[in-house]
Amino acid sequence: MSEPFSPGSVTKQLDNCTYCPKMCRHACPVSTASGRETHIPQAKMDRLNQIRLGRSPWTQETTDPLWACTGCRHCTSYCDHDNEPGMVLFAGRAAAVAKGITHPALTNYSERFRAREERLSAQLKAAFPERLATTGEIGLWPGCDAIDKGTADIAAAFSVFERVGLDDVKLVDAPQACAGYPLLAAGHRDLFRWHAGRVAASLRGFRKVAINCSACLYALRAQYAAEGVNVRPEIVAVADLLGPAANNLACPVGSPEAGARRSVYYHDPCYHARYNGVMDAPRRALGQLVEVRELAWNRGDTECCGGGGLLPKTMPMVADQMAKRRLAEVHATGGGLVVTSCATCAFMLKRNAPASVEVADLATAMAQLSGTVFSAPTVAATDDD
Asked: Model-level pTM greater than 0.90?
């Protein structure tokens, strides 16, 4: 039997879910968006359990439901047994990959990931050569999507840092651009362990590192340790830096923001809300500038934007539908600005926003709302691997 299934706790979770009366089915954004019964958490866990028990073979067809998960952990929120279908299904992906079975959209993914790392690292160095450093008090790790989809959010973050007195923040100069969460989601555990070691070495010259990707923040804080990789600096979210410092971000006198305060919605990235505990800091940062409005599903009950678990690769239409569903509430009330604190969430929501809804990364929103000037090199956004 494959190693990911050897712990008794995982076996118990599979059995519990197999015989569960589907109490968490309403909490799965993938099954809600796809409309398929085979995508509800109970059905996916039952499928994996039947494969584990030898009642179904390991094939591309039988393992297909394992990829219908973002790991958002919403189902766990409604589980009386605290089962973790997301983590178990990711382990199932690793077992499938070990047997040579992967999703068709992820063929040769390890090579594609490596090529993307090289491209994005070079892209970051070309865009911000004067901000790069290998040592320092605070390092900024923007996240691969922040680099890939345009550098304006990175430039905005530095403008805000400087305005609130965080002058010692430097871009981490590294040959890597991603902390490696996509490798875990793709089922490449061995490659993730190797990559984690290289990233940890690149970060060791800093006392603290802030990252703008909720999934990779979780990977750095928890998954690296699980793989025996020690991370020397303190790892925080960008929102953790901006929250305490935001009271220094005064609105310009005479600006519209200095008068009536605008209302802005905040979207909780699911990995921040249910893995990292990053919920108050972004609201505290925004609250210095605007009235923060809550979506119906918020904080620990937030809905996934569709960006996790490599779903934009394996089920792109469903991923986009999840983002559209997330913004439908704002559109129905007349539209407005939605702010989030994860580069991947920002990208998914932006590309699926109706005309009535504007989406912004936290740092960019804070810069715009406070009149902080920023500019960035023009970099063509891509949607490749």
From this structure: yes
